[in-house]
Amino acid sequence: VRLVESGGGLVQPGGSLRLSCVASGFTFSSYGMRWYRQAPGKERELVARISSGVSSTFYGDSVKGRFTISRTNAAKTLYLQMNSLKPEDTAVYYCNTAIWGVDYWGQGTQVTVSS
Q1: Backbone angles phi, psi at 28, to 5 degrees
Q2: From the CB of residue 25, how many other CB atoms can be counted at a distance below 10 Å?
């Protein structure tokens, strides 16, 4: 199982970024996917998750209405569209899935929101 995130960077408050996570080594379309983030000195936080088939979604309260999680199963890719970014969104963002009770993580991508 391999998860590779990209798309992070430095953005001004109010700006947007789109994160991507390319998956390999498992049947991507069969598993729910999640985005987590971890800011310095804080615990890892669930940002959003999306189901495998019917694409139901869940968002953490801090990002609801600003972030959108989506997936393209044919491309084995997970996305996180982040709008109206705030300084408190600054963190390393990780892609995650759980297969047979085992968690798999990408290496993370840094998002910094600052003027």
Answers
A1: -50, -45
A2: 11
